[in-house]
Design a protein that fits this description.
single chain, 732 residues, alpha+beta, 7-stranded mixed sheet, 5-stranded antiparallel sheet, 22 strands, membrane, PBP_dimer_sf
């Protein structure tokens, strides 16, 4: 055994000695060559070739976001130091001349111990193609007409090369900023569509591998990048511009109002959505809090530099998130009377009421131990179902909801998707907060029936109202129509998503007639669009709890033409910067101004005559009524990248007209007694404690007996067998 072990040991020792001898032989013969190849890997290991993030376009192909190729200037110090005596000064002079770099800093970088052998030093980032071409042309030694000295100078410019990169550009600056959003330098979407579709817009980086071959020559292997896909949105740039123009005009008109929270704007929040009720496509979505997508961190429009400097990091983060917030999808509020068509549609669909039923309004209803008043404290008298919508009668709506019952009311409010995400393709969608079946009682049912003491978002109300007027079909709201490859091929198409049919076409027809009556004769008269059949509903809701009869959200939602709707518009004005915040006529007028330009642009033909009586009611001239029809609606001129060359649109001048109320009555500048819609002088005596207030479209005033909206932080509102959890209802 010992002899065998000694033999094995001797054999292994012999092999190791042989290997050492062979390694020594290789080192003597080719050691320098292999050393250069190994060391070269430090410099030529690999380089990332960035992909191009996809474009975001409107439905007509206009570019809203794109990535533009830029270049980083890279210095190869090792290459310059290979012949420092000849290469150093020409290279430094060229860099200083074309990129305004400091010559002393360049010499120090090239000769410093820690960088002299570096092959990758970034000198300048994101230069343009023109700047790159100018440098290459200015250092081209083969150019004609050069002297020998100039040729030698240029040929000695060594070690400078250009690395491709991309910069995100938003050609329309602030247009649709809350929808488009933006991405950072790492191609991470931060807000809007840029965030929601970040994975679709992003591609895959390529790689360039470098190494020295056996002859010490540099070899390169390139894997090309895969560029991102392009988005075609449902947004129409022209409609978006019209909407934003009138929001800006509203801000300018009411900037000097008394509401401090408005910060010099027309309201704390003004938001508008224009959509197709038959598909769920959004044509325009805007607020009065747009920001420059090319400089999204600029808060100078809201804060002074001193205020910004005094902010903590958390305060800056909160301020930026508020700036980037999209009110239309991320904020919930009490919808007010715009919800009434949902209540009536539900009652008709279940058979709880018939369209020929009548209800008597005597000014309010006693619900258990509380008296809830109608907006008309004197009472509307006997009303049909349609007239209840026309006159926005809270008393009738409460009676209708009692016949519908808590169980069916809760069922249908869910069928219309309140309390749930709509699924719109935008980030940070809110669900709103509803009462559960067990948490709802008679008082909550009464106040919920006319859109108070629960919350929803604009997109929820928009989708539900569209269902009411489109024949009963609930479509998921959507922002994107197609995903295209970089070559224009269709990767994916987004067809309209029909989720359910909460009501029948018969019920829809009844509601459309009622909504048209509301615009023709009721509370929404200021929303009439000359030449078109409009149907819609106003809304007014007090903010906060307990009620203070001070801060209001007013709104209007309508469809045109109401007999066969092609467009739905929803206008919400959160705390208008005016003395009388409860004036829903403000939202009606804003909707009318937008529609007067949008409808002709969409080639929706007029079907009605424009009468002098109607113009007098609206307080506008015939010229103003016709102005929208001659607005330039041709496709804007674009450059080779699809960017609009001229985007500025001047708001058409309007003649000064007398101030009118929401019904078109000219307001006197002298103090006059308050009257109801029939001209009766209202008694100004204080009401008894325990009554619920009487503001237009909003009977809920400060009162300890009035139910607050469900508290999203109180879990006891949700019984153990509830269909949803508290997490489902908490504001996202």
């Amino acid at each position: 055994m010992q002899i065998k072990l000694l033999a094995v040991f001797a054999f292994v020792l012999f092999v190791l000695v042989g290997l050492n001898v062979y390694i020594a032989y290789i080192n003597i013969k080719s050691g320098d060559k292999y050393a250069r190849q190994v060391l070269s890997q430090e410099y030529y290991d690999s380089r990332t070739i960035p992909y191009r993030r996809g474009e975001i376009r409107d439905r007509n192909g206009n570019v809203l976001a794109r990535s533009e190729k830029v270049y980083n200037v890279i210095l190869d110090c090792y290459a310059v130091n290979e012949d420092q005596e000849n290469y150093m000064e020409p290279t430094v002079r060229a860099l200083a001349e074309y990129f305004n770099l400091d010559e002393a800093e360049m010499r120090s970088l090239i000769t410093a111990e820690d960088t002299k052998e570096s092959r990758y030093q970034i000198l300048v980032q994101e230069i343009s193609q023109e700047e790159k071409d100018a440098f290459e042309e200015g250092t081209d030694s083969s150019a004609e007409g050069l002297s020998d000295a100039e040729k030698e100078e240029r040929s000695n410019v060594q070690g400078v090369w250009f690395e491709e990169d991309y910069q995100r550009i938003y050609p329309m600056d602030t247009l649709a900023s809350s929808v488009v959003g933006f991405s950072n330098d790492l191609n991470d979407g931060i807000a809007g569509l840029e965030a929601y579709y970040s994975d679709v817009l992003n591609g895959v980086n390529g790689r360039e591998y470098g190494y020295l071959n056996e002859d010490s020559e540099l070899e390169r292997n390139i894997i090309e990048p895969e560029n991102g896909n392009n988005l075609v949105t449902s947004i129409d740039m022209n409609i978006q511009q019209i909407v934003e123009k009138y929001i800006a005009q509203f801000d300018a008109e009411h900037a000097g109002g008394p509401v401090e929270e408005a910060n010099g704007k027309g309201s704390v929040n003004t938001a508008v959505i224009v959509s197709n009720p038959n598909t769920g496509e959004i044509y325009a979505m805007a607020t009065n809090h747009g920001y420059d997508l090319n400089d999204p961190y600029d808060m100078s429009g809201s804060y002074t530099q001193a205020e910004q400097d005094a902010m903590t990091e958390q305060e800056k983060s909160d301020a930026l998130n508020e700036l980037w917030n999209n009110f239309c999808v991320s904020d919930s509020f009490e919808p007010g009377s715009t919800f009434k068509p949902i209540t009536v549609a539900s009652a008709l669909e279940t058979g709880a009421i018939d369209e020929n039923d009548t209800f008597y309004c005597d000014g309010g209803e006693m619900v258990t131990d509380r008296y809830i008043r109608c907006d008309n404290v004197n009472g509307h008298g006997m009303l049909t179902v349609k007239e209840a919508i026309q006159n926005s009668c809270n008393d009738c709506l409460m009676q209708i909801s009692f016949q519908l019952g808590i169980e069916q009311f809760c069922e249908y409010i869910r069928l219309f998707n309140f309390g749930s995400l709509t699924g719109i393709d935008l980030p940070n969608e809110n669900t709103g907060v509803l009462y559960t079946r067990d948490a709802m009682h008679e008082v909550e049912l009464a106040t919920n029936s006319f859109g108070q003491t629960f919350t929803c978002t604009m997109v929820q109300e928009l989708a539900a109202f569209s269902t009411v007027v489109n024949g009963g079909y609930y479509y998921q709201p959507q922002m994107v129509k197609q995903v295209l490859s970089e070559n224009g091929g269709v990767v994916k198409s987004f067809e309209p998503v029909l989720q359910r049919e909460p009501i029948s076409s018969k019920t829809s027809e009844i509601l459309k007639e009622a909504l048209e009556m509301g615009v023709q004769y009721g509370t929404s008269r200021q929303a009439q669009v000359p030449g078109y059949r409009v149907g819609g509903k106003t809304g007014t809701a007090e903010k906060g709890y307990p009620r203070n009869q001070t801060d209001y959200i007013v709104s209007f939602i309508g469809a045109v033409p109401i007999n066969d709707p092609e467009v739905v518009i929803y206008v919400v004005i959160d705390q208008p910067n005016v003395e009388n915040q409860a004036d829903s006529g403000l939202a009606c007028v804003l909707a009318r101004q937008i529609l007067m330009e949008v409808l002709p642009y969409m080639n929706i033909p007029m079907t009605e005559d424009i009468t002098d009586e109607q113009l007098a009611t609206l307080g506008i001239t015939r010229e103003e009524a016709e102005a929208g029809r001659i607005t330039e609606t041709e496709a804007p001129e674009t450059d080779e990248y699809g960017n609009v060359i001229e985007t500025e649109t001047e708001a058409s001048a309007t003649e000064e007209t007398p101030s009118t109320d929401e019904y078109g009555n000219v307001l006197s500048t002298e103090e006059t007694p308050s009257t109801d819609e029939y001209g009766n002088v209202l008694v100004t005596e204080e009401t008894e404690d325990g009554n619920i207030g009487a503001n237009p479209d909003d009977p809920v005033a400060e009162n300890p007996n009035v139910p607050a909206p469900p508290d999203e932080n109180q879990e006891e509102q949700l019984p153990a067998d509830s269909e949803v959890t508290m997490e489902d209802l908490i504001t996202q």
